[in-house]
Structures are given as structure tokens and as C-alpha cells.
Amino acid sequence: LLLLLYILRLLLLIDGVAGQSVTLPCKYDLKTQGSSAVCWGRGAIPTYGCSDQIIATDGTKVREETRRSNRYQLLGKLDHGDVSLTILNATERDSGQYGCRVQVSGWFNDEKYHIELTITKGDIHC
């Protein structure tokens, strides 16, 4: 008997401008899954949790002890499954890979969203 595991993966490419806010989308269906814990991290998403975690929720609110910087905000409606990450005052150092993991009960059911962020210098007008 062959057991096939399907792990939902999505790769998004997001561009932003230094000095502005940029939002990395991550949403889940609250009606079918119920309230789910979510974590955001830098780099590839490992088998469990988030690597280099920058912010996380308990399913209803941000777990403040996990917030690495006040520049990282979850401004969407958490009670509607919108756990998109907004990075305030983005810098070129924010460029790179990010991952959002929505914890779904059961083995290997978590939803994973992979995002590649590129921040470029803004135009300077004199």
C-alpha cells in the first residue's frame, strides 16, 4: 500500500521599495480549519515549526514573545484567517525567502507558503 502525502506549497515573488511597507500574503480558510496557529520565518520552512521565526500566533492573537521586531506586524483580520505579514519601513536587508506555516491538525497537513521578497532602493527625487 502506497501512502501519498500532499503538502500544499505555494511560491510567491513579491517586490517592495525601501522605506515603504510591504505585505506578504498568507490566508487560510477559518470556516473549514477552525482557528489555527501560524508562524512566519526567514528561509525555507522546515519539517516542523518555522526556521528563524520572526512572529507567530496562537490562532487568535499574536504571541508577543515571538515578535522579533515591531516592524513585523499582522495587520489583517486574524479572526477571518488573514495572517499576512506586513514589514514596516522595509530595507534591502529584508530581501530573501520567507515562509508562512498554518498548523493544521493531523500528520503533514500544515499549509506552507513560500515567499521570495526583493526590496529595491526607492527613487530619489530632488
Summarize the structure.
The protein is mainly beta. The protein is built from one helix and eight strands.
Key terms for this structure?
126 residues; mainly beta; Immunoglobulin-like; five-stranded mixed β-sheet; three-stranded antiparallel β-sheet; 1 helix; 3% helix; globular; disordered N terminus
Percent of residues in helices comes to under 10%
Largest sheet, spatial ordering of strands: 1-8-7-3-4
Shape: globular
Q: Bin the strand percentage.
A: 25-35%
User: Are there runs of 5+ residues with pLDDT below 50, and where?
Assistant: 1-9
Number of helical segments with 4 or more residues: 1
Derived from helix and strand composition plus strand pairing, the structural class reads: mainly beta
Describe the structure.
This protein is mostly beta strands and 126 residues long. It has one domain: Immunoglobulins (Immunoglobulin-like, Sandwich). It has one helix at 30-33, and strands spanning 9-17, 22-24, 38-42, 53-57, 72-73, 85-87, 96-102, 111-120. The strands form two sheets. The protein has a five-stranded mixed sheet with strand order 1-8-7-3-4, with no helix packed on it. It has a three-stranded antiparallel sheet with strand order 2-6-5, with no helix packed on it. Strand 7 and strand 8 (111-120) form a beta hairpin. It is globular and about 45 Å long. The model is unreliable at 1-9 (pLDDT under 50).
Helix and strand arrangement:
Blueprint: E1 9-17, E2 22-24, H1 30-33, E3 38-42, E4 53-57, E5 72-73, E6 85-87, E7 96-102, E8 111-120
